Amino acid sequence: MESVVANLAGKTRRVTHNGREYLVAPVTMIVSGVLNGSQGSLYYPDDEVARSADAWNGIPIVVNHPIIDGRHVSARRPDVLAKYGIGTVYGAVHN
Predict the structure, then answer these.
(1) What is the model's pLDDT at position 44?
(2) What is the pLDDT of residues 18-57, one digit of tens each?
(3) Any long-range contacts for 20-24 (C-beta under 8 Å, 24+ apart)?
(4) CA angle, corner 12, sides to 65 and 5, nearest 5?
(5) Which of 34, 94, 90 is nearest to 61 (CA)?
(6) Which residue blocks in the chain are alpha helix, DSSP H?
(7) What pLDDT, on a 0 to 100 scale, did the predictor assign at position 2?
(8) Cα-flanking dihedrals φ and ψ of residue 8, to 5°?
(9) How far is CA 92 from CA 29, 39, 66, in A?
(10) What's the confidence (pLDDT) of residue 14?
């Protein structure tokens, strides 16, 4: 069994989905403002963050960004998800 450590601000709960137990935890995926990224700093205005909240639903959660043959790859690939995936984002809303 592997462990994942995270700083959580809300209550967690356990749920069973498709016969597998998961830990459900509230998280902040993105905040408005200037954020650092792989292509440099980018400004994310609050209205854009609010409009895109639903786009997070269904996004895989992985430990580290998956790399195959020295290149970053999408966690949405079934082979990558099977190896690196630890969960999925559901119920994303803008607060």
Answers:
(1) 92
(2) 898 888 988 888 889 999 987 899 999 999 999 998 999 9
(3) 22/87
(4) 40
(5) 90
(6) 46-51, 78-84
(7) 65
(8) -115, 145
(9) 9, 25, 23
(10) 93
Token pair belonging to 2: 């592997």
The model's pTM is 0.71
Cα–Cα dist 25/79, whole Å: 25
pLDDT in tens, 62-80: 988 899 999 999 999 999 9
Q: Which tokens hold the place of 91?
A: 């119920």
Q: How many residues does the chain have?
A: 95
DSSP state of 58: T
Q: How many CA atoms lie within 13 A of 41 on its CB side?
A: 4
